[in-house]
Amino acid sequence: MGATYSLRRCTVDSRKVAVITGAGSGIGKAVAQALLADGYQVVLAGRRAALLEAVRAEAQQLHGGAHERVLCVPTDVCDPEAVRDLFDQAVAHFGRVDLLFNNAGRGNPPGSFIDWTAEQWRDVVDVNLNGMFYCLQQAFRVMRDQKPMGGRIINNGSISAHAPRPNSIAYTATKHAVMGLTKTAALDGRAYDIAVGQIDIGNAMTDLASRMAKGVPQANGELAAEPLIDAAIVGQSVLYMANLPLQANVLFHTVMATKMPFVGRG
């Protein structure tokens, strides 16, 4: 019979170290909570220090002593030197990096792209693509050089990587690019025991997606409310991917509100 594997909580002697970008709210916060509940040591990265500290305080309330397993590093992922410092601090504090949840992102500028400025376009590309690359690059460098070598990277894609919404050209274009980044990094990571995958999320309840419940444009031009799922469900999905042995990889994982208008015609 072949070997069997079980997904177990991290023990004190084998706690993994995770870096989460965009960790101060939404999906990043939900993933941080899931990983901390499972025993991970977690580096929280985001632009707003106060939000990171709030996540750390909440973790302490939910899991006594968890604050000792949390490092907050205010980071602008658009700045490659800031990203380098993030990973330097993670290694200095916890000794290694086993997981990167490459999550930081931003939504589309308002209105039609016909009226956007070049700066508005670049703002989305800088966060959603360039920032994701800078983080992946630094994670590769750390995971390649640490002992034992290797680790896992989970990029936050989107179902927009497969099908666009109206008036979403910047967000959708960057998420298509992230899909290419994920596939190529998964290939390049083999030499260093680095597993790279992507989670594509549909309608998780966050500040970014809350407007879905009030009505958003559909492909036929109508406005319609859409169902949402609790962001904690996404946290559990990332936890599952994170806890696989490195010889296994979920290349693409889609988690979505069951009745949202994604599959089918519309």
Written overview of the protein:
This protein is an alpha/beta fold. The protein has a single domain, classed as Rossmann fold, CATH 3.40.50.720. The protein has helices at 26-37, 49-62, 80-94, 118-145, 169-188, 231-242; strands at 17-21, 41-46, 70-74, 99-102, 151-156, 194-202, 216-217, 223-224, 252-256. The strands form 2 sheets. The chain has a 7-stranded parallel β-sheet, with helices on both faces. A two-stranded antiparallel ribbon has the order 7-8. Helix 1 crosses helix 6 (231-242).
Oligomer: single chain
Low confidence ranges: 1-6
Overall geometry comes to globular
Structural class: alpha/beta
From the 3D structure, determine the CATH topology.
Answer: Rossmann fold
CATH class (first level) name: Alpha Beta
Average pLDDT for all residues = 91
Total number of strands: 9
Q: How big is the Rg?
A: 18 Å
> Which H/E pattern describes the elements?
EHEHEHEHEHEEEHE
Identify the strand order in the major beta sheet: 3-2-1-4-5-6-9
CATH architecture: 3-Layer(aba) Sandwich
Biggest sheet features:
7 strands, parallel
CATH superfamily annotation? NAD(P)-binding Rossmann-like Domain
Give me some keywords for this one.
alpha/beta; 266 residues; single chain; two-stranded antiparallel ribbon; disordered N terminus; 7-stranded parallel β-sheet; Rossmann fold
